[in-house]
Amino acid sequence: QVQLQESGPGLVKPSQTLSLTCTVSGGSITTNSYYWSWIRQPPGKGLEWMGAIANGDRTYYSPSQRGRTSISRDTSKNQFTLQLSSVTPEDTGGYYCADEGGHWGQGTQVTVSS
Question: Which residue ranges in the chain fall short of pLDDT 70?
Fold first, then answer.
C-alpha cells in the first residue's frame, strides 16, 4: 500500500522560504500516480489545494499561490517537494501531500512566526 510522509520545519520566520518534502513508500512516484499534490489547511479553515506535479514534471499551481509556490520531485529518492516563498503568518497551518488515488500523508504543522 502506498504511504506518504511529510517532513520539514515546524517553525519558519516571516519572509523566509518554507520547504517541505513528501516521501512516498510502498510504490513508485513515477508509476503509482499521475498527480502528486500539496494541500494545506489554515487554522479554522477548509482545505486548500496548493498545486501538483505530474509525470513529465509538469506542474500545476493554485492561482492564489502562483508565483510563491514551487513543486519539484526527486525520482531517485521517491520524493516530491513544496517550496513556498515569502511566507507570512497567514501561511500557518497543516500541510499535506497526497496522490490522486486518495492516499494522504498524516500532515505536518507549520507555524510562521518571528
Answer: 32, 66
